[in-house]
Amino acid sequence: MHDLRYVLRSIVKQPLFAGIVILTFALGIGANSAVFTVLNAVLLRYCSSNLKLLSHWRDMISANASGRLLQSLLFGVGATDLPVMFGVGLVLAGVAFIACWLPALRASQVDPVTALRTE
């Protein structure tokens, strides 16, 4: 319960940061699911037998839909443009690295004894 109150106080103190974190998570989850849906459908299309292909129609339909959505949103990007997919993955990995590294850097600059005394 104490942790929940701490989180709520942090959100109230810094709503912009909390909004950016939530937006980053939402974009990361959406992009991650789109990339893996496309890769899953592309890999399964070439490596599966007829029975497996019939069982993965849902994956291929969602991969096609997400590829067409990406194609309609970005000018000059095809539905199965692999360099863009890998580029998005690298950008998301970079954002995740920075999102982990910055708080760790700030935490490493705090004296542990002082931090323990304030709690």
Q: In percent terms, what proportion of residues is strand?
A: under 5%
Number of domains: 1
Low-confidence stretches: none
Average of pLDDT: 75
Helix amount? over 70%
Sheet of most strands? none
Distance between the termini: 15 Å
Assign the structural class, choosing from mainly alpha, mainly beta, alpha/beta, alpha+beta, or little secondary structure. mainly alpha
Strand runs, count: 0
Gyration radius (Cα, Å) is: 21 Å
Q: What does this entry look like structurally?
A:
With 119 residues, this protein is mainly α. The chain has one domain. Helices cover 86% and strands 0% of the residues. The model has no long low-confidence stretch (mean pLDDT 75).
